[in-house]
Amino acid sequence: MQSLRIPIFYLLLSLSTVIWCLISLLVAVFLPFRARYRFVVQTWCRCAVWLAWHIIGIRYELHGVENIPQRPCVILAKHQSTWETFFLSAYFEPLSQVLKRELLRIPFFGWAIALLKPIAIDRSNPKAALKQLAEQGRKRLEQGVWVLIFPEGTRVPVGEIGKFSRGGTALAVNAGLPVLPIAHDAGRYWPKDGWSKTPGTIRVIFGPPLQAEAEGPRAIADLNERAFAWVEQTQRQLGVLSDDPVVDGAAKV
């Protein structure tokens, strides 16, 4: 049955993507940003998470919800699969995600995402990307928007963790806000590569907000190290890290 559930899941997800993006392109332009986010992103991402739960059997449980600050800040999340992108985009509202500029060129999906104030960077130009993240990220935070960053820069398989870029902690330090670290084991059930999916319960852990103790480059580096250490330790507690887990990731921002 599982071999049938997976193509059914992808069929429904693809249909919902095309249909909802078309509706969003017609409706969203007339909505203010927060209502637009709820209409376009939360509805569709909740649909994706619901399909994964009820068709494939990928459930989830949350821990440390009490750690989430009342005021939006910078989210530094472990990146293992596509599931956490769906979940975090639905859970935090409104949210601006740092993503590759190329994604905005994808028909329907990219066009709809472009309406939601993403921070779309050019990874081939790290200096320009850092400047863009600093400028646009600060504006989003000032507007009361969560900023989601995957500091490893790309999805990293279960058992490994990529080095964290400092772009997220630099943004938080310069804005005078904390970072919210998030660990999970989504890659166990929704792997980085391939179409296979495995039923199970993803554990999502929200860490304590981490605040810089000073300003400047040293404070940024220290905050980045503390965020990395918490995520690494928590991934070990989840049982999803090997003995020598750190790899050279694609993180540049």
From TrEMBL:
Q: Give the domain of life.
A: Bacteria
Q: Which GO terms describe its molecular function?
A: acyltransferase activity
Q: What pathway does the UniProt record associate with this protein?
A: Lipid metabolism
What CDD domains does the entry give?
LPLAT_AGPAT-like
InterPro entries reported for this sequence: Plipid/glycerol_acylTrfase
Keyword terms of this UniProt record:
Acyltransferase, Membrane, Transferase, Transmembrane, Transmembrane helix
- Asked if the keyword NAD belongs to this entry, the reply reads no
Looking at the UniProt entry, the stretches that span the membrane are 6-31
Q: Name one Pfam family in it.
A: Acyltransferase
**Which stretches make up the Phospholipid/glycerol acyltransferase domain?**
73-187
Checking SUPFAM superfamilies in the record gives:
Glycerol-3-phosphate (1)-acyltransferase
Q: Does the keyword Protein transport apply?
A: no
Q: What is this protein called?
A: Lysophospholipid acyltransferase family protein
- Recorded source organism is Azorhizophilus paspali (Azotobacter paspali)
